[in-house]
Amino acid sequence: MNEKKRTKLFPYNFRLLLLAMLLMHVLMVVASFYPPIISNLGLVPQLPERLYGIFTAPFIHASWGHLTGNSIGLFISGYLASLQTGFKRVTVFIMVMTGVLVWVFGEYGNHIGASGIVMGYYGFLFGTAVFNRNLVGAISFTVLVAVTYYLDFAFLATLLDFSAQTSSSNHIFGFISGLLGAYIFRQSKK
User: Fold this and answer.
1) By the 8 A CB rule, do 129 and 137 touch?
2) CA pair distance 163, 85, nearest whole angstrom
3) What's the pTM value of the predicted model, to 2 decimals?
4) Does residue 139 lie in a domain region?
5) Domain for residue 86, yes or no?
6) What is the mean predicted confidence (pLDDT) over 114-125?
7) What angle do CA 44, 45, 48 make, to 5 degrees?
8) Is the distance from CB of 60 to CB of 83 less than 8 angstroms?
């Protein structure tokens, strides 16, 4: 396969996401030997000394199962989102906005994991389809919902999961952040 085809299959933006996922796996290995990393790098709402968790929490996971679930969601939604214009700035926006909203409004606890970013990509793809009247965005969102449903990761069930071990605020605020990002960074029609 030549370089041009490889670039189309795995765009540069998606390669950056793969590097971030590799970092998540490396940190999980470190956490296997040094478990306090999980509690030390999470986001704890309304605790000023834990604001750094806005940037660190998405890379930390409670278990290999947690990381695997988020990795699958991140791989699928991240790939489709990476095909959209403004992917890098929207990713940073989703991470920061989700973290800020969880820090301000989230329930007390140690919030960790990349699910806010995964749900942010869902929101971004949906918002891109709606705000830009973008056929590729609409198809991407439809494919994302269909594939995750097929893989038994039902979108609405994940978005509205209020179980004790799940950061529902991370899911909801991630989706909202993705919608906001799609709206703020929408392409102007000339």
Assistant:
1) yes
2) 35
3) 0.84
4) yes
5) yes
6) 92
7) 80
8) no
Return d(Cα 164, Cα 55) in angstroms, integer. Answer: 23
- What confidence tens digit (pLDDT) does each residue in 148-174 have? 666 655 555 555 555 555 567 888 999
pLDDT for position 25: 97
CATH number at residue 156: 1.20.1540.10
Amino acid in position 132: N
Print the domain residue range for 103: 11-184
**Separation CA 150–CA 22 (nearest Å):** 25
Q: What's the whole-number mean pLDDT along residues 118-147?
A: 81
When divided into structural domains, the chain yields a total of 1
CA angle 109, 107, 167 (to 5 degrees): 70
Q: Token digits for 35?
A: 């478990």
Which residues, other chains included, contact 165 with Cβ-Cβ below 8 Å and sequence gap of 6+? 62
